[in-house]
Amino acid sequence: PASQPDLATRHRDVMPPWSPLYHRDDPLEIASGQGCWVRDGHDRSYLDFYSGIAANILGYDVPEVRAAVERQLRTGIVHTSTFYLIRSQVELAERVARVSGIADPVVFFTCSGTEAVETALLLATEYRRSHQVVALRHGYHGRSFGALAVTGDNRWKGMGLSPVNVAHIPAGRPEGSTSADLDGPAYVRLCAEELEHLVDTELPQPVAALLAEPVQGVAGAVPLESGQLAAYAEILRERGILLIVDEVQTGWGRTGRYWGYQWENVRPDLLVFAKGVGNGLALGGVVGRREVMSCLTMPSISTFGGNPLATTAAVATLDAIEDRDLPAHAHRVGDLLRERLDRQLCDLSSVLRVQGQGLLLGLAFVRPGTHAPSPERAVAVQEECRSNGLLVGTGGRAGNRLRIMPPLTVTAEEALHGADVIAAAARRTDT
Ligand code: PMP
Cα of 247 to ligand 1 centre, how many Å? Predict the structure, then answer.
């Protein structure tokens, strides 16, 4: 690969993302990876607690996935999907259908989470013959017109024209929010009343669907309150409104169960997935009730959606997730990681308690002794971690949260090591 100094002078041609990791004077080149570790262009190694934004769910250079992809490459067939029968696509659809928890499901494959969200919106609005949808505040669903319209992250508000009418309802409470004085059940009751009022009184047209992340990832791993999704689902069910769960970040075991929605007693009508399923290869999709999935009468074609290379990688990835029982592993190691962080950070006045579920964790930084968000501190800790060989993300409603999402294969030792690096970095910046 090209050397890092060379790349660092050439990256001006690439539109920069908003990640502070990228804007440094020395942007990081990920040159190679193995297990939960990556190497940069200077051959320095990092424990990756961000998994390529939750994409490398098994880590890097996984022998089973590499072998499957190499076998597929040797057939010469790597593209053009939905016109033809493709063995790996059929196999993957069977697998996804089986684990989805949806009765009589059908799967449609895309190349990304954004397209999958777009597809789900298209299906729901067509099925219910209404362009009114409801989504959660502070959520993130992608960067197309439709996905941006439902995104409740304030930083993205007002981007372009919206193809759907969207109303937003409360998500979970971030640690230290001003509504923290309400207890959980009281908060859930208030949220349910808000949804009820919205769908029965405020909105002029019937509502097609509610779109919700069970744990809000980009918002900094903020879970819904216990009972909140179930309370919402009950209101929807009584009125025939569809529940779409966005499992792009929470899926495939990351939260400690196969799907994030499985922490609640609910059954989605449509489930959106992407990220981890191809262990780094571009793949997403929607799985949903046949009745809803078949409401589109125009041809449903995606040139690259469900392509043989990505679906082959995905079948091997799901094999590994199930063979190694990675949801249970994520639950166990996530608890360890969280306890270690909480124990090491409890005396710091600039950090709030760890939030999240399984291996989807977030840590909020504030101005010492207050609940005022400190995005500067989150970025400083992220940079300090990088200097000490650990990659983490940032995000959150105010950009003040560290996002911690190691591959699900992370060992207990690696998890505790990562926690120690984060804690030491937080301690150094706690002034
Ligand atoms: N939904 C959620 C919950 C996400 O976290 C993301 C990506 N961060 C998306 C949708 C969009 O996925 P993609 O970037 O693959 O288009």
Answer: 9
In this structure, the answer to whether residues 109 and 234 fall within a common structural domain is yes
Q: How far apart are the first and last CA of the chain?
A: 40
Task: Kindly give the distance from the C-alpha atom of residue 182 to the centroid of ligand 1, in angstroms, as a whole number.
Answer: 31
End-of-domain residue from the set 257, 288, 323: 323
pLDDT digits (tens, 9 = 90+) for 263-317: 999 999 999 999 999 999 999 999 999 999 999 877 678 889 999 999 999 999 9
pTM: 0.96
Q: Is the CB of 141 under 6 A from ligand 1?
A: yes
Instruction: Measure the CA–CA gap between 294 and 105, rounded to whole angstroms.
Output: 11
Domain end position, chosen among 323, 346, 363: 323
- What is the domain-level CATH number for residue 152? 3.40.640.10
**Grouped pLDDT means (10 residues each) for the chain, 431 residues:** 62 73 74 97 95 96 98 92 88 98 96 96 96 96 90 69 89 71 90 98 96 97 97 98 98 98 98 98 97 84 92 98 98 98 94 94 93 93 96 93 98 98 94 75
CA–CA distances in Å: residue 82 to residues 89, 108, 110, 303, 358: 9, 9, 10, 7, 35
Pocket probe for ligand 1: among 51, 211, 275, the residue whose CB has the most ligand atoms within 8 Å is 275
Co-location of 306 and 396 in the same domain? no
φ and ψ at residue 135, rounded to 5 degrees: -140, 175
On whether both 271 and 332 belong to a single domain, the answer is no
Q: How many whole angstroms separate alpha carbon 117 and alpha carbon 164?
A: 13
**Any ligand 1 atom below 6 A from CB of 213:** yes
> Among 140, 273, 281, which residue has the most ligand 1 atoms within 8 Å of its CB, making it the best to mutate?
140
Q: How far is the CA of 231 from the centre of ligand 1 (A)?
A: 25
Distance 168 CA to ligand 1 centre (A): 18
CA distance 177 to 306: 41
Per the DSSP assignment, residues forming a β-bridge with 271 are 245, 287
Torsion, Cα 102 103 104 109, to 10 degrees, reads 0
Are residues 401 and 351 both part of a single domain? yes
CA–centroid distance, 6 to ligand 1, in Å, is 31
Question: CB under 8 Å, gap of 24 or more: what pairs does 291-294 form?
Answer: 291/127, 292/123, 292/124, 292/127, 292/242, 293/105, 293/106, 293/108, 293/123, 294/106
- Number of domains the chain is built from: 2
**Domain enclosing residue 382, as ranges:** 4-61+325-428
